[in-house]
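ENTRY TYPE: protein
CONTENTS: sequence, structure tokens:
***
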Amino acid sequence: MNLGDFSSLGLAANLAIFASAAAIVWLSGYKLAQYLDAIADRSGLSEAFVGMLFMGTITSLPEIAAVSTSAYVGNAALATNNLLGSVSINVVLIAAADAVLGRDAITSTIGRPTTLMQGVLVIIALSLTISAVLAGDVSLGPFGAWSLALLAYAVFAFWMSARYGRRAPWRAERRPGHRSDQREEGGSDQDGGGSHASLTTLVLLTVPCAIAILVAGFGLAQSGDAIAKLTGLGSGIVGLVLVGFATSLPELSSIISAVRLRRYEMALGDVFGTNILTLGLIFLADLVYAGEPVLNQAGRFEALAATLGIILTGIFLVGLLERANRTFLRMGYDALVALPTFAVGIMLLYFVQS
């Protein structure tokens, strides 16, 4: 069996692999948030930066596995659609975190500007991706000029976020009674899974979680791709939704766990950090793919998918700026707007692909 093709196993086997891998990813993501919560306390790093760099990088491991495998077997469309699909789906996961929080809109709990900066950096990365698709890429040996630029930008964005978080040039007023205030004043009401462990122990505990997310995430992505083939769905919309959702499960698990720990900035930092790194992974797809730059095979579908990511990120940035804590159906108004926006975007993508 080809390493990148699970379709020969049959539909039933792939559904079983998908479900088992999803369970492993979910548990690993849950524990990961607990360990990184304790690491943030021990190290003194800001929760937004820990969420963006460490949680964002680890929960991106399934994307790394899926993209490299898809590119290796020559499916550049699935590789790029998986990446761009993950961006939009990751942002929509904020709505799930909002529902877990319930009483307040999650964007009303963020009092530091670092999360806003991270969201803006994501929008710039997506805008660069659209520019690359429209302008076309130029080959620089084994990779394209635009993919190299996106990787360089991802490194810059992480550096900028860390630097901005240390400066903390301003801070919003927090309304009395917010859960974020309770988290800062009284600490978490849950044991973060390592509240008495040393920093070294916490790091060592994090490694198995990362390995489990990588291995199970690979199984998720490949079984999702096989399910798509066996059910006769197109690779474009499947890469965007099914495989994108599969590789976003670690983010869903970790951000819900972070919200339960009242680490709201870590939760949003995970989403935005993952998205920046995800777009930087286009460079990895270029390195592995045997052919012209992968962005030269992208078109209207991919440009529209990136535009959807910009719109969804912008919606939550408005929520972060407004900081209104009104909710309906346990979600803030920004989350309620994001869900139908995502649904409309998926329908548009379906018709564009057709």
In short: The longest strand covers residues 327-328. The longest helix spans residues 11-43. Confidence is low (pLDDT under 50) at residues 177-189.
